[in-house]
Amino acid sequence: MATATEPSDLLKPAGRKRGRLKVFLGMSPGVGKTYEMLRAARRRKAEGHDVVVGVVETHGRRETESLLRGLEVMARRPIDYKARVLMEFDLDGAIARRPDLLLVDEYAHSNAPGSRHPKRWQDVEEILAAGIDVWTTLNVQHLESLSDVVLRITGVRQRETVPDIALSNADDIEVVDITPEELRKRLTEGKVYVPETARLASENFFRIENLTALREMALRRAAQTVDDHLVAALREKGVSGPWAAGERVLVLVGADPMAATLVRTGRRMSDVMMDAPWTVAHVDRPSASATDPQRAARLSEALKLAEQLGGRTVVLSGDDVIRTVLDYAQRNNVTQIVLAKGR
To answer: Which of the four, 15, 26, 63, 138, has the lowest number of CB atoms within 10 Å?
Structure first.
């Protein structure tokens, strides 16, 4: 029987030596993330390392399929679901095999019901905790904090997302980068999707302006993660510096539909300010009438999202919302306050 594991538990440091995580990051499907991962894996194998393919999705691309030849590929685990058999990554088999390096494609993949973890990134965390190195792939639009921005740019809401901390914890990020023009050429040549799907994609998600924005996001996020790692290493060595320039972000949320959007905005502001500390706050008014269950659930989800994205959360109490927030901001040296219009 599958056992439930909280995402936050998986991200806690393990007692044993943790494996190293490398993410091949791209602006969108079709840039060649899996192809580059497999090419690098073949080089690693040629150097004498024990390399195993846990799961790779070739999407019928012959060039990618050819790179699997000569590599050990694990069998997938069948899962019965609604009179169908779904083939999923064999997490237990991978841990038992214990290679030097395991390839686990599509970091943002949602596992079939009945799997130990809902998400593949959680599988990866368990593998890393077992001391096994992992290489994986990710499109930038699947980062949780960027989902609202991606929706505005492309008109497409991403159903599968990865919490930003799962990328921030990567030891190495390699951006697989091609120009938007090159990607659209690959699309028309049938190297990304079948012809009819490619035609629709080129008219919608794969427009030049969309790809340009996504490309910039991928490059910025990779650079930000490298900067964060450098700052952390310098701090660990006791080297002082003006990191975050004293900036502190406070996000004020209510139990309304804007809450999750405000949380993601706060996370992005923190990134721009070189990983400035950020907190999501809600003011509970003692004199107010009881919050209905739906609104209470919405607020709870927003606070949970903030923690998943690496922020702190606090529930304040006071009938004067403005005074309560300003008092908290002053006590905690807050320099930026994020709130919805009309609050």
So the answer is: 15
